[in-house]
Amino acid sequence: MRKTQITIDVELDENHIPEKMTWNAQDGGVEKEETKAVMISVWDEKASEALRIDLWTKEMPVDQMKMFMHQIFVSMGNTYQRATGEDDVAAWIEQIAEEFAIKSAIKM
After folding, report:
1. SS3 22
2. Which of the two ends of the chain, N or C, has the fewest CB atoms closer than 10 A to its terminal CB?
């Protein structure tokens, strides 16, 4: 069996707030690529719940955070469709993403 790694390095300030983050993905050719925000979800099968890590740096602009969230909603719809084949629910998730874009003023 082959293994690969994806890692995230987080530099914290004295109050444990992320100041700088970089990520690495061996197979993707990504090495020490800087990012301002990270959201990771993993499924805990024993507890039947999602566990999450949401981090963003002090330098992450609010307008970019809104765009980041919108793109996550869109990708959730795509992932849901691929995982379940339920086109109607995937379309509903995409509609939520569009409503978010309008309400958050990133789309008119």
Report:
1. strand
2. N
b (16+ CB within 10 A) / e for 67-95: ebbbeebbebbeebbeeeeeeeebeebbe
Q: Where are the alpha helices (DSSP H) in 15-61?
A: none
Alpha helices in 1-108 (DSSP H): 62-84, 87-103
pTM for this entry? 0.88
The terminus-to-terminus CA distance of the chain in angstroms comes to 49
Q: Which amino acid is at 19?
A: E
**Amino acid 107: pLDDT:** 81
| Token duo for residue 67 | 């765009």
